[in-house]
Amino acid sequence: MHPLMDFTTRPMTADEVLVLLRHQHRQCAQEGGNPDAIIHPEMTVADWCEAADWIDGPEMGKGLNDYFGIEFTGEEWRGVLEPSRKRTLRGVCDLVASKARVDEVREVSLFGRPCVSAAVFLAVRTYLSRAGADVRHLKPSTPLAGYLGESCYSVFYRDLPKIAPSRVPSLDFERSRIEAWLLCLFLGCFFLVLALASVATCTGNVAFGFAILPLYVLGSAALFGFLTFTRRPPKRTRLGSLYNFGDLVRTMLGEPILTTPDTSPHAL
């Protein structure tokens, strides 16, 4: 028998919403933006979007609805997001907190005694099972590596940070270097084409025009390759310096971990 937890829920506070927005920012900033930006209640929506390299608009409200498991209309979101240079995160946090709820981890008994770590581990198992993962053989010593894929991404990005605010590390993605090379090649070809086109226009020299075609083809191929590789799963995925589920549970409880990344590599 492999028990799962039946959660009870409680309202989420505005302070907890802000902590989750900070976690969301740290995760998203890996793909662009400013990871060192300080996310605070008086920060304007425009500065928040700029720090995370987001585009403010209707899609932002939809994304927040999905992340927090809430339902607000576009009009309701516009009330706290626009105008973005005047609206602040305080309004966003208050709106989210008016509907958002968070799971409460129930106490679990182990050998007749209350055990908080067992309760947190059972909660982690439950979230992974809901995400479709096979948890039949999941133990505290099980490496995290096999569960950090795309299918369980929401568990580590959204579910666990909600029940352990500010304690769950961000997922670290390491992609192949070929993506960077392809992007540099595309940008190089793009600017060379612009330069040659300008020279050909100014001088009327047709030879410069003929040089554009191969550069255009090479740049297009590089862009296609770059877009193809970025759609693939990352080369490696890590959850901070954590190795196994025992480390994850201890971190969620604010306790020191017992394994280290130097002795326990866990990359996918």
What is the compact description of this entry?
51% of the residues lie in helices and 7% in strands. The protein is built from ten helices and six strands. The strands form three sheets. A two-stranded antiparallel ribbon has the order 1-2. A two-stranded antiparallel ribbon has the order 3-4. Strands 5-6 form a two-stranded antiparallel ribbon.
Evaluate the radius of gyration.
24 Å
Helix-strand sequence: EHHHHHEEEHHEHHEH
Structural class per helix/strand content? mainly alpha
CATH topology of the largest domain: Non-ribosomal Peptide Synthetase Peptidyl Carrier Protein, Chain A
Number of strands: 6
Kindly estimate the percentage of residues that lie in beta strands according to DSSP: 5-15%
* Mean pLDDT over all positions: 81
The description of the largest β-sheet is: 2 strands, antiparallel
Supply the number of structural domains.
Answer: 3
Low-confidence stretches are 261-268
CATH class of the largest domain: Mainly Alpha
Tally of helical runs: 10
Main sheet strand line-up: 1-2
CATH architecture assignment name of the largest domain:
Orthogonal Bundle
Report the helical percentage. 40-55%
- Cα distance, first to last residue? 29 Å
**How would you sum up the global shape?**
globular
Can you describe this structure?
It is a single chain. By secondary structure, the protein is mostly helical. The protein has 3 domains: 8-102, Orthogonal Bundle (Non-ribosomal Peptide Synthetase Peptidyl Carrier Protein, Chain A), CATH 1.10.1200; 105-175 and 234-252, no CATH class; 177-230. The chain has helices at residues 14-28, 45-52, 58-68, 74-81, 89-97, 116-130, 153-163, 177-203, 206-230, 245-252, and strands spanning 8-11, 101-104, 109-110, 113-114, 171-174, 236-239. The protein has a two-stranded antiparallel sheet. Strands 3-4 form a two-stranded antiparallel ribbon. A hairpin with a 2-residue loop joins strand 3 (109-110) and strand 4 (113-114). Helix 8 packs antiparallel against helix 9 (206-230). The protein is globular. 23% of the residues are buried. Residues 261-268 have low confidence and may be disordered.
